[in-house]
Design brief:
The complex is a heterodimer of chains A (223) and B (250).
Chain A: H1 2-44, H2 47-62, H3 65-79, H4 86-112, H5 115-123, H6 128-148, H7 151-158, H8 170-181, H9 185-213
Helix pairs in contact in A: 1-2, 1-4, 1-7, 1-8, 1-9, 2-4, 3-4, 4-6, 5-6, 7-9, 8-9
Chain B: E1 6-17, E2 20-31, E3 35-39, H1 46-53, E4 61-66, E5 69-70, H2 78-84, E6 85-88, H3 100-110, H4 116-129, H5 145-157, E7 163-167, H6 175-190, E8 194-198, H7 202-208, E9 211-216, E10 219-224, H8 226-231, H9 236-249
Parallel strand pairs in B: 3-8, 3-9, 6-7, 7-8
Antiparallel strand pairs in B: 1-2, 1-4, 4-5, 9-10
The chains are: A mainly alpha (223), B alpha/beta (250).
């Protein structure tokens, strides 16, 4: 009975999975795209830049994702004259929230690269920018990856909070099915199984990448 | 003011770290093809002097000229001068994420904008010069200290520098590995490279250097040919320093 309901409603649930993955993917892209420059700014920037970034990080790490979502959905974006669909608000908020955390993962990794790497690069005539791009970052990103891989399951699970602003993601779809069919546990159980599976698959994928880009004797993946 | 016969002129360089004045006005002129060794107790500014020459450390005052062009206050042009001034470090500082050959070619690609094929050929040639061609595809962590240092010498030489700075290149190496690195440096000196070497290897200094500078407390206290310094040091501390070396080497 429950199984046949699940099968009947699966296409509906599936579109929720797609939206959840869409949220996660855009949030991670925004997270890296903003988190990495923030990290570089915090390591190499002026006092003003460092203070501005520290404030950003403090703000986004200091508030629950749900509160951030409400702030942006009902307050900040409308005040800016932006009438964004809930999905975009969710993706941007998760992205900025993730960027705050990721910036600290990247910052730690950049700072763990020995000073000699920069000195040697500069001694060969590289500009600071060239040295960061070709010498520091390729090493730092390898070191950051294990810590960064936390971000995927974190953003994935937090994405369910977008339920509260009506994004039709996995949890939203599940509860809609529940209210249509009055079948509760089997549906939420299916929702949980899907979340856990997505989390496992993504993390396994990241571990695979970690192994692929490992360098002998270097970093956590090395000998 | 200009003096054509010197490739490098260091004029009255001073540098303090906090209240500690490490260089108290050091001047030296270097002729093309000359090897100058800097000896003396630790903490007397030898390494700082080398780092000031390619502006890895910015001196507080004084000037440095390479071929009569001012290196100090060069602004972004310092990246041009640094290609002309190769540097080798005590701890090698090879790029840990790159193989030996990639270490040598990376600056050719990024700084000199050579095409990949040319850069690879040049990098392999330089590795061959230091006897490391067979190790081209190994990562730094897979090399011994002596091998790593020879790769770092190749990396600096690939830029076709006019002058090479060696900052205690063998201090992190055991005697056997020290010898293989010194052999490479000796060959380089014979081929006419201009070299400034901070070292505690008195044997190398005496056999290869044209000039030995004894540094103490931020000054060059004594300067002369190896024979002059060994046989007839005027300055007491220098005499004692060299005396210690003689005692241990017997």
């Amino acid at each position: 009975m429950a199984l046949s309901i699940l099968i009947d409603w699966f296409p509906y649930l599936f579109s929720g999975i797609v939206l959840t993955l869409g949220l996660v993917a855009s949030a991670l892209v925004i997270g890296v795209g903003i988190g990495l420059p923030l990290a570089l700014g915090q390591v190499y920037g002026s006092l003003f830049v460092r203070t501005a970034i520290a404030t950003f990080v403090w703000f986004f790490r200091g508030l629950p994702v749900l509160v951030l979502l409400f702030l942006f959905y009902f307050g900040i974006f409308p005040a800016m004259g932006l009438d964004l669909p809930a999905f975009y608000v969710g993706a941007v908020v998760l992205g900025l929230w993730g960027a705050a955390y990721q910036s600290q993962v990247f910052r730690g990794a950049i700072q763990s690269i020995s000073e000699g790497q920069m000195i040697a690069a500069r001694s060969l005539g590289m500009s600071k920018f060239q040295a960061i791009r070709t010498i520091i970052l390729p090493q730092a990103m390898r070191i950051a990856l294990p810590g960064w891989s936390n971000q995927y399951p974190e953003v994935l699970t937090e994405s369910s909070v977008c339920y509260a602003i009506g994004v039709a993601e996995l949890l939203t779809r599940s509860s809609q099915i529940v209210s249509q069919t009055y079948v509760t546990m089997p549906i939420y159980l299916a929702c949980a199984v899907i979340f856990i599976f997505l989390s496992y698959a993504g993390t396994a994928g990241i571990h695979y990448i970690e192994k692929r880009i490992a360098i002998p004797g270097f970093g956590p993946g090395g000998a | 003011m200009t003096d054509e016969k010197y490739i490098l002129r260091v004029e009255n360089i001073k540098k303090s770290f906090g209240t500690n004045e490490v260089l108290k006005g050091v001047s030296i002129n270097v002729r093309k093809g000359e090897t100058i060794c800097f000896i003396g107790p630790s903490g007397t500014g030898k390494s700082t002097l080398l780092r000031c020459i390619n502006q890895l450390t910015i001196p507080d005052s004084g000037k440095i000229f390479l071929n009569d062009e001012e290196v100090t206050h060069a602004g972004p042009r310092i990246n041009y001068f640094r290609q002309k001034i190769g540097m080798v470090f005590q701890n090698f500082f090879l790029f840990d994420h790159l193989t030996a050959v990639r270490n040598v070619e990376i600056a050719l690609l990024k700084v000199k904008k050579m095409n990949p094929k040319e850069a690879r050929e040049k990098a392999m040639y330089e590795l061959k010069q230091v006897g490391m061609a067979d190790w081209a595809d190994h990562y730094p962590a897979e090399l011994s200290g002596g091998q790593a240092q020879r790769v770092s010498i190749a990396r600096a030489l690939a830029m076709d520098p006019e002058i090479m700075l060696f900052d205690e290149p063998t201090s992190a190496l055991d005697p056997e590995l020290t010898r293989e690195v010194l052999e490479v440096m000796k060959k380089l000196a014979m081929e006419g490279m201009t070299m400034l070497v901070v070292t505690h290897e008195m044997g190398f200094a005496c056999s290869v250097a044209n000039t030995i500078c004894f540094m103490e407390h931020g000054h060059i206290k004594e300067q002369g040919t190896p024979a002059e310094l060994l046989n007839n040091p005027e300055f007491e501390r220098c005499k004692a320093f060299i005396g210690e070396f003689r005692e241990y080497s017997q």
